[in-house]
Amino acid sequence: MSGDGSNIKIREAANADLPHLGRLGALLVQEHHDFDRQRFLAAKNRTPQEYACFLGTRLDDRDAVILVAETKGEAMGYVYGEIEGYDYMSLRGPAGVLNDLIVDPAYRGQGVGRLLLDTIISRLKSRGVPRVVLSTAAKNESAQRLFARSGFRPTMIEMTRELDETEQSNE
């Protein structure tokens, strides 16, 4: 496949995609856990099925957008976002909230993530959201570069402190 995205199709997710999305969702969980084992959940044997079940509940929600990138019928990655109203906990007005963006490692570096990101931004904009917000793991520098190239700017920093003294570092 060429890196120009010409063989990549971005489409709405369907029930038939859920096993693939569950596998990719479990990969997303594990990659975050690898970034910070104290902060993020670890993937378990049931994570692919549980993630697929969760995403399945979002497929028919009119405020959710789940898109799949595929080539030759094979899922390469997906993106999941939702339209939300005012959120006073995060001091934010209405927005599209990008929850997940994951590309199978076999397809990374080929523009798949950028196509998914551009497409969901376009879909959310067409639905009238004034902004798109997202969170990314502090150590996920490649994702941060992608988001910055797409016009995102840092606006919040999550900080975590473990309360079990045996797990705190002495930095």
Question: Could you walk me through the main structural features you see in this protein, from its secondary elements to its overall organization?
Answer:
This protein is α+β, with helices and mostly antiparallel strands and 171 residues long. It has one domain (9-150): Aminopeptidase, CATH 3.40.630. 32% of the residues lie in helices and 20% in strands. It has 4 helices and 5 strands; from the N terminus they run βααβββαβα. It has helices at 18-35, 47-58, 112-126, 141-149, and strands at residues 9-12, 64-71, 74-84, 95-103, 132-134. A 5-stranded mixed sheet has the order 1-2-3-4-5. α3 (112-126) links the parallel β4 (95-103) and β5. It is globular, with a radius of gyration of 17 Å. The relative contact order is 0.16. The model has no long low-confidence stretch (mean pLDDT 93).
Short structural description:
Helix content is 32%, strand content 20%.
Number of domains: 1
Give the name of the CATH superfamily.
Answer: Gcn5-related N-acetyltransferase (GNAT)
Radius of gyration from the CA trace?
17 Å
Quickly give the CATH architecture: 3-Layer(aba) Sandwich
The percent range for helix content is: 25-40%
Which terms summarize this structure?
32% helix; five-stranded mixed sheet
Q: How do the helices and strands line up, and which of them pair or pack?
A:
Blueprint (H helix, E strand, L loop, with lengths): L8 E4 L5 H18 L11 H12 L5 E8 L2 E11 L10 E9 L8 H15 L5 E3 L6 H9 L22
Parallel strand pairs: 4-5
Antiparallel strand pairs: 1-2, 2-3, 3-4
Helix pairs in contact: 1-2
